[in-house]
Amino acid sequence: MKKTTCELLDILKKAPNIESYMDTSSDDFIKKIPLADYLNTLIIEKEFKKSTIINHSGLDRSYAYQIFDGLRTPNRDKVLSLCLSMNLNIKETQQLLKHTGYTPLYAKFKRDSIILFGLEHALSVIEINELLYEMKEEILN
Fold it and tell me: Which of 19, 92, 102, 138 could link 97 by a cystine bridge, Cβ 3.0 to 4.6 Å?
């Protein structure tokens, strides 16, 4: 069974050296997956069409295709726009962010809370941007 973050931190604090920590904890580390691979796996699993995802994301078409091809590395907001356009739930979005090296959404940040609310209520990118704007937060770009 995977250790929690708190458990790993406790083990790390007690470790006599970094090598012993790595030896005992390496199975618990999150495995980083290239974003393009993760997105393309989701497309296959959920039977999405790239063109539909891209149209709903608000991203430039050629730029978005370059993301899916692994040629471009988007910022977190663009990744969130793709998650929203795929109608991913909170858990799926957090997993994608963690496994691809992006910071997960954090409910203690006002902006992230608004995005989490939008995910929970299956809002579109446009609807979430409207909420962000109304709450005087930076829109997804």
Answer: 102
